[in-house]
Amino acid sequence: MNWLTRDQIHYLVLKTHSLTGLVPVGAFLVLHLFVNSLRTVGVWQYQLSIDLINNLPFLIWIEIGFIYIPLLFHSAVGFYILKTGTRNVNVYRYPRNGLYTLQRLSGAVVFVFILYHLGTTVVPKLFNGKEHFEAAPYLIGIMNTEFESWLVRLIYIVGIASASFHFANGLWGFCMSWGVIVGKNAQRNASILFMLFGLVLMFMGFATVAEFSLNPIEVSPTVPGV
Ligand code: HEM
Question: Per-residue pLDDT for 120 more than 60?
């Protein structure tokens, strides 16, 4: 039987790392920031979106399969790349080289942010058994209290900025490594486009933080059928 060589396994792991960064991890980030930005439209719309998510069938399995496992894999391989420092460091000229270093640093920051973020949202929600229609008022209450603090606002601003940069710059790296952008012009245009995209993500996140900080509103659980 033909087993894969070490180099082939290494190559497959790096390609899977690159792919998971786009789908599902990157796709989740875009959706997540978008759904949370509904808070800027109105607290009712926001509550409705959390109600919808928390009433999905098989929610825990969807989260484990599509969010937590790919996120863990992407982070573990990311830390491996950070530690071994193998790829591409000397390939790109300045400023690409600087962006590559920032890509690694922002990944580490996002990982720490996610631990904090899960520890203050999903973990207490599960621990206190807040399911279905009870999840939204509970989570909105946590957010209202959290965003009273300047330190928490700063943590979110750094987390959102790092995640938006990491994904936008990662998209450029993805297109390079999968041969989507080849010519010099295409590469330059793509980097402008992706950076604009990153700024839009950042803006959505910052607007949500501002809304929670300036306009905290408590809500009661939705009563189905009323
Ligand atoms: C304004 C910014 C943000 C707000 C208000 C926010 C809010 C929330 C809330 C309320 C939850 C719990 C959802 C639930 O259990 O129903 C959650 C989960 C989560 N958030 Fe955020 N988030 C923000 C930014 C981010 C960023 C930047 C990241 C990534 C770096 C992120 C990653 C996650 C992950 C991985 C989960 C767990 C997913 C799940 O189990 O549904 N969040 N967030």
Answer: yes
Residue closest via CA to ligand 1's atom 32 equals: 114
- Is 201 near ligand 1, meaning CB less than 6 Å away? no
Please name which of 120, 16, 24 lies closest in space to residue 63, comparing C-alpha atoms.
24
Compute, in angstroms, the gap from residue 117 CA to the centroid of ligand 1. 7
Q: Which residues of 158-189 are buried (b: 16+ CB within 10 A; e: fewer)?
A: ebbbbbbbbbbbbbbbbbbeeeebeeeeeeee
* More confident position, 45 or 85: 45
Does residue 132 carry a pLDDT above 90?
yes
Q: Between helices 135-146 and 43-54, what is the axis angle to 10°?
A: 130
Inter-residue contact 205 to 220 (CB < 8 Å): no
Amino acid (1-letter code) at residue 103 = Q
Q: Enter the tokens of residue 112.
A: 């720490």
Q: What is the CATH number of domain 8-214?
A: 1.20.1300.10
**CB-ligand 1 contact for 54 (6 Å cutoff):** yes
- How far, in Å, CA of 42 to CA of 48, rounded? 10
- What's the predicted TM-score (pTM) here? 0.94
Nearest-atom number in ligand 1 for the CA of 212 is: 5
| Whole-angstrom Cα Rg for the chain | 20
Whether the predicted pLDDT of 91 surpasses 80: no
